[in-house]
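Request: Show me your protein:
***
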Amino acid sequence: MNIRAKTITTISSREFNQDTARAKRAARNGPVFITDRGKPSHVLMSMEEYEKLKSHRGRPEKFRSLADLLADDRPEADFDFDIPEFKSVSLRPPEFD
């Protein structure tokens, strides 16, 4: 599911309990975040979006392991990776004067 292209709706647990139909309608257009005391606690989505997420359809490369990505020898699978510079670290014990 491409969340950026979907409408995200946020409702409280109380609103969800009072108007479940509204939450289900909103889930057709994107994820519905259900909050509990102001903090997100659950996400409601359509079954179709759940199945896409579950089966990794649409963008399977997004869910591949690093080993699979490195083993892929197709030219379009090539990517650049700059190894970060290692800064020297002092291994002396701390002084507590």
